[in-house]
Amino acid sequence: MMSSMVQDKVVVVTGAGGGIGRDIALAMAREGAKVVVNDIGASVAGEGKNEGPAQAVVNEIKALGGQAVANTDSVSDRAAAARIIGTAIETFGRIDVVVNNAGILRDRFFHKMSDEEWDSVIKVHLYGSYYVSRAASAHFKEQESGVYVHMTSTSGLVGNFGQANYAAAKLGIAALSKSIALDMQKFNVRSNCIAPFAWSRMIGSIPTDTPEEQARVDRMKQMTPAKIAPMAVALASDSAKDVTGQIFAVRNNEIFLMSQPRPVRSVHRGEGWTPQTVLTHALPALKKSFFDLDRSGDVFNWDPV
Residue 57's closest CA among 102, 27, 97, 98? Predict the structure, then answer.
């Protein structure tokens, strides 16, 4: 059933050939948006290229009575990212919403991580979000409206094993979003993040070598990508005009507002600090407020509901 929460808005969704991106693209179309379905059709590791996934989602949208066009450019290249936004302009005449969803994983423990594994993940997630957002920014500024929805992750916001590349990129995206929100507020442009918990092809590469890892994956399989889409559509709508610079997490039927770094506790010494007094005074005084060395699964340690 088609309705009109984002009626006639032109929405670019990157990495929309499957998983979370596909469900966001479909949900946007159901609410009246014209959608650019971007996906290079690569594997989770970013290998290969295939036009099929993007076009398949376009076909689904058209079957619903919606409007959509496929794009297979890579977000990780500046010129290609500009072509993604160009597809929106050429096909539908404008751009209103950018959903930065494209991503790959190259999980590896930090001390074993290669430069290529680091570079490729940073390039797709962080550079990709920057390149696509930057390409849209001139249009948003000129029309004095626009919405960015970026995908961050609790792997970056909290922490996880074996994901230094992914975590660094995802925490960088949270900072990128906040900076966009600050810099472009005067143009009526909004920027927010979603940290999604959802079973997807990308998450499917998580190792399941131990019973604990298998149990974690089994829990995650309950969280379908479709659960993420309502938040993305809501943030894209004019009804959320006062929501910007925020980080939300969506976990099955739960929605969280995530904290952002702020001072927790302070100590002061009138005569200033020496390395010795830092050790004997500052660190002991602050220690009770230290954060545990926990992971996303330690913080979100209950079964999804």
Answer: 27
- State how far the Cα of 102 lies from the Cα of 88, in Å rounded to an integer: 17
How much is the average pLDDT of 234-244?
98
φ, ψ of residue 13 in degrees (nearest 5)? -120, 115
Task: Determine the Cα–Cα distance for residues 63 and 140; give it in Å rounded to an integer.
Answer: 30
Q: Tell me the three state secondary structure of residue 191.
A: strand
Strands 10-13, 34-38: pairing is parallel
pLDDT for 212? 77
Could you give the CA distance from residue 20 to residue 26 in angstroms, rounded to a whole number? 10
Residue 297 in this model has a pLDDT that exceeds 90: no
Q: What is the Cα–Cα distance from 65 to 254, expressed in whole angstroms? A: 30
Are 147 and 230 in contact by the 8 Å Cβ rule? The answer is: no
Q: Of 127, 131, 148, 166, which one is the catalytic site residue?
A: 166
Tokens representing residue 47 in the block:
């290998």
pTM, two decimals, is 0.91
Would you call 83 exposed, middle or buried from its count of C-beta atoms within 10 A (0-12, 13-18, 19+)?
middle
130 is catalytic: no
Domains located in the chain, CATH noted: 10-257 (3.40.50.720)
Q: Which has the closest alpha carbon to 229: 76, 24, 17, 89?
A: 24
- Positive or negative torsion for Cα 101, 104, 109, 112: negative
